[in-house]
Design a protein that fits this description.
Strand content of chain A: 15-25%
Largest sheet of chain A: 7 strands, parallel
Helix content of chain A: 25-40%
Strand order of the largest sheet of chain A: 3-2-1-4-5-6-15
Distance between the termini of chain A: 50 Å
Number of helices of chain A: 17
Oligomer: homodimer
Number of strands of chain A: 16
C-alpha cells in the first residue's frame, strides 16, 4: 500500500483526485487529501474507500511533518509561494514532491540534497507550465533528431470558455483561474527575442502588440507576450534561436477591449480608492476619463478614435463599466474594483464549460529549406467541476505520481518535465485521455 | 553674533550662501557651510570673512551634533530623506531648522516638541514647494477677503532653459535639477480633482493629457499633472473647490516627444539590461520597437501615426536615439540608459542660462459673477552658478533665516509658508529682488 498525499483541495484538484482514486484499487494506493477545509476535501473524495481527509495547514509545522511523513509521494497544489516550506518538510521526511508551480530559487537550491536523498522534486508539471514544456520538447527533439536547426519558437496558451458557453458574453472570456492574476496580467515588462534582437514591451503596449493565431476548428485567437520569454532559450536548449516568444491566448477582440482598461489606468493596484459605498460603476470608470461632454461611451470612443459601435465598447458596456449600478465595495484599489465589477458577469455558472487552447509554432532549417511546424492542443471542460483547467493541470501530476510509484521515473533531484524519460510516458497517457497536440507541417 | 549653519553646498546653495554672506556684516552673522566636500563649500564661500567651512556628514552623529549645537539656525539643503535625522539633532540641540523639502510624517510628528521648545521648523520654503505655496496663498486670501468663492485652482511650475540658451536644442530643455527625477517623472498615477470629480491619470497617459498654458512675454507651455494634487485642497483650505490640479511645465512640444519614450517603455527602471558595451544608442532604442522594415525614424513615425517630419521625431533624433554612437555604459536599467544618452546633450554649459516658470490660474465666483485670475512668475538665471533654480530655491530660505534672526517670525513648531505672517515678508523681499508674480484678471 502506497500513500499519496494531495495538498490543496481547490478547483484544480478535482481531476487529479478523481484519477488517483480511480487508479487506487489497481495499484493499491491510499489517497489522502490535505486541506484546511474538510468540506472542500470531502467534496473531491466523495465516498471512495481509497480516499481519506487529513487537516493540513502548513503553518502547523508538527502536524504538517506528520502528514507528509506518512505519505510516499506528495502532490502539492498549494500556492507557489508555500512550496519552499513544503519541499523543506519533504526533504526532512524523505518524500517525493510533485507540483505544477515554477521552480523558485529556493527550490532549485534543494537539487543536490534531494538528489542524494534519492528524491524526485518534479515541478512545472501542470498545464502552463507543464504540458507546454512537454509538447514543445517533444517537437524540438524530433526536429533536432532529423537534423533541423530551429530558428523560431512561439508558444501561447489560454484558459478560455468553450464556444457554446455564455453566447451573449462578447468578451468570450470568464474567470477560470485566479481572477486577480487576470486583472493584473502583464504589469511587468515583457521580454522576448525577435529576429535575433532583444525586445521589450511595456505593460501599456502589451495589449496592442498582439500575435494572431489560428487554431484549426476553433478559429482565430490573439496572444500577448508573457513576462519573460528569454529564460526559455536555456530551458529548451535553443541557444541559436532568432525568435523566442511565449504568451497568453485570448479570443480575437479581447485585447483591444482590455487595452482600454489598461490605457485608462483602471487596473492600477498602487493606491486605494476610499468611500466607494455610494458610487456607481460608471462613476468609478469615469475617474479615469478626461472630463468632457457626451456619454461615457462616446467619450471613450472619442479618446481612442473608435467608432461609436466598436465591439470593444460593447464589451465594456456589457461588463457594466458604463452602468449606474452601485459597485458594492467599501474601498479598494482600481484593480480590485475592476475585478469585483468583472466577477459579476465573468464567474462560471454550473452549465458553463471552459476551454484550454495551447499553440506552438516552430520554424526550422534543414539544409537550405525553411520549414514550419504548427501544433495546437484544445481541451474542453467536461463539467463545471472537471474543467479543462482542472484536467490539464491535474492529470499530468497524477500520471507523474503513477509513473513514480510504479518505478518508471528514475530521475532524481529538482526537475521539470523537459527530459524525454519524463515527458514521453506522460504525453502518451494524456493522449489516451484525449489530451493531445494536432500538428500541421508547412 | 548669530551663526547660520547651511548644510549642503551643492548647486542650489549658491544664491542662498551669497545672500547670507552679503547680509552678514549688516546683521553680524557668521555663515558656516557644512558639507562632506570642503572644495564645494569653499567655492561658495570664496574669501568672505563672514564665511567658514565645517566638515559635515550626518552619519557622524557626534560631530553633526556639535556643528548644529554651535549654530543659531540651521538651513538644510541635504536630500529630503535625511531631514528627519537633521531635525532630531535640531530638537536635541534646541535649534531652528529651515528646509525646502516636503514635510514628511517623521517631521510632522515633531510639531509639538518643536513648538514647546520654542523652535521653528519651517519646511517647503524653496521654489516648488515654496514660492508656489506663498504666491498661491496670497492670491487665495485676497480673493476670500473680497468675498470670492474659489471654484478652481491650477498651478504649474517648470525648471527650463532660457529662450536664448542652446537655440539648436529642439526640446528647449536641459537638466537643471536631478536628472534621474526628470527621467522617472510621472511614474506613479496622478490624482486630481476636475469639475467636482476625482480623476486619475496613469503614467502612460500623462504626457498626452497635458494642459496648455500661455505666459505673457514667454509664449506657450504645456503641463502634465503631478502625482497628488488632492492633498493641497487641505493645505490651501480650499475644501469647496471643484478643480484642483498641480503640475509640471515644459515648453510646447516637449510632452509629445517625451510621450514616445514613455509609450515605448524606455524609462522603465524595473530591470537591468546587461552587456551594453558594444551596443549603439539606436540598437538600445530599437529594443522597444516592434520589428519591421525601414529606418528607426520611419518605424516610430508609423507606430505613432506621425508624419515623417514630425518635430517629436526631430527631438528624439537630436538626442541620439537613432544614432550608431555607442551608449558608453556597461549595463543599466532602460531609465539609466535614457538618462545617460540624454545627459550627453542636456547638460548645462557654462554660458547656458536656465528659466523658472510658475503659473497659477484661479476661477472664483463673487455674487453671480465668475471671474478668473492668472498669475505667472518667470525667473531667468544670472549665470551658470546663480541659476534661476538656485535663486528661487535659496532666496526664500535665506530671507526666512533673516526674518527669524531679526525676530520677525514668531510662529513656532513644524510649519510651511502658507500663513500670511510667514509668506508676506518673504514675498515682499523676493519682489525687491525681482522675483514676483504678474497677474491678469479676466
Amino acid at each position: 500500500m502506497k500513500t499519496i498525499l494531495v495538498l490543496g483541495a481547490g478547483r484544480s484538484s478535482s481531476s487529479l483526485i478523481q484519477y488517483l482514486l480511480h487508479n487506487a484499487p489497481v495499484y493499491g494506493w491510499k489517497v489522502v487529501v490535505g486541506d484546511v477545509s474538510e468540506k472542500a476535501a470531502r467534496e473531491k473524495i466523495g465516498h471512495n474507500p481509497a480516499g481519506a481527509f487529513t487537516p493540513f495547514d502548513i503553518n502547523h509545522v508538527v502536524s504538517s511533518a506528520q502528514s507528509i511523513g506518512s505519505a510516499d509521494v506528495v502532490i502539492s497544489l498549494l500556492p507557489a509561494f508555500l512550496h519552499p516550506q513544503v519541499a523543506k518538510i519533504c526533504l526532512d521526511q524523505g518524500k517525493h514532491l510533485l507540483t505544477a508551480s515554477y521552480v523558485s530559487t529556493d527550490i532549485q537550491l534543494m537539487h543536490e540534497k534531494a538528489k542524494s536523498a534519492g528524491l524526485l522534486f518534479l515541478n512545472e508539471c501542470g498545464l502552463d507550465p507543464g504540458i507546454d514544456h512537454m509538447t514543445a520538447m517533444q517537437i524540438i527533439n524530433r526536429i533536432k533528431q532529423k537534423g533541423g536547426q530551429i530558428e523560431s519558437f512561439e508558444s501561447l496558451t489560454g484558459g478560455l470558455i468553450a464556444p457554446r458557453t455564455d453566447p451573449e458574453n462578447p468578451w468570450r472570456y470568464k474567470f477560470t483561474w485566479n481572477p486577480r492574476n487576470v486583472v493584473m496580467a502583464g504589469q511587468s515588462t515583457a521580454k522576448y527575442l525577435e529576429n535575433g534582437k532583444l525586445k521589450y514591451i511595456p505593460y501599456h503596449q502589451l495589449f496592442s502588440r498582439t500575435t494572431r493565431v489560428e487554431v484549426p476548428g476553433f478559429g482565430v485567437f490573439e496572444g500577448y507576450a508573457n513576462r519573460d520569454s528569454l529564460q526559455y532559450i536555456d530551458t529548451y536548449a535553443l541557444q541559436n534561436i532568432n525568435t523566442m516568444l511565449r504568451g497568453t491566448l485570448r479570443y480575437e477582440g479581447f485585447c483591444s477591449a482590455w487595452n482600454i482598461l489598461v490605457q485608462l489606468g483602471c487596473c492600477d493596484d498602487s493606491f486605494i480608492v476610499d468611500a466607494l459605498e455610494n458610487r456607481s460603476q460608471a462613476d468609478f470608470f469615469e475617474s479615469f476619463l478626461p472630463s468632457g461632454p457626451g456619454t461615457i461611451r462616446k467619450r471613450v470612443a472619442s479618446l481612442f478614435n473608435l467608432d461609436d459601435n466598436d465591439e470593444a465598447l460593447d464589451k465594456l458596456e456589457w461588463s457594466g463599466f458604463f452602468s449606474d449600478d452601485l459597485i458594492g465595495l467599501e474601498k479598494g484599489s482600481p484593480a480590485q474594483v475592476v475585478e469585483h465589477i468583472l466577477s459579476k458577469r465573468w464567474t462560471l455558472k454550473p452549465d458553463d464549460l471552459d476551454l484550454i487552447v495551447m499553440w506552438h509554432r516552430f520554424t526550422y532549417r534543414i539544409g537550405n529549406e525553411l520549414k514550419e511546424t504548427r501544433a495546437s492542443l484544445t481541451c474542453t471542460g467536461e463539467s463545471a467541476t472537471h474543467t479543462a483547467m482542472a484536467r490539464t493541470v491535474g492529470l499530468p501530476l497524477a500520471i507523474a505520481a503513477k509513473l513514480l510509484l510504479t518505478e518508471k521515473l528514475s530521475r532524481r533531484g529538482v526537475q521539470i518535465p523537459t527530459l524525454p524519460e519524463i515527458y514521453e510516458p506522460i504525453l502518451a497517457e494524456l493522449d489516451s485521455l484525449g489530451i493531445r497536440m494536432s500538428e500541421q507541417e508547412f
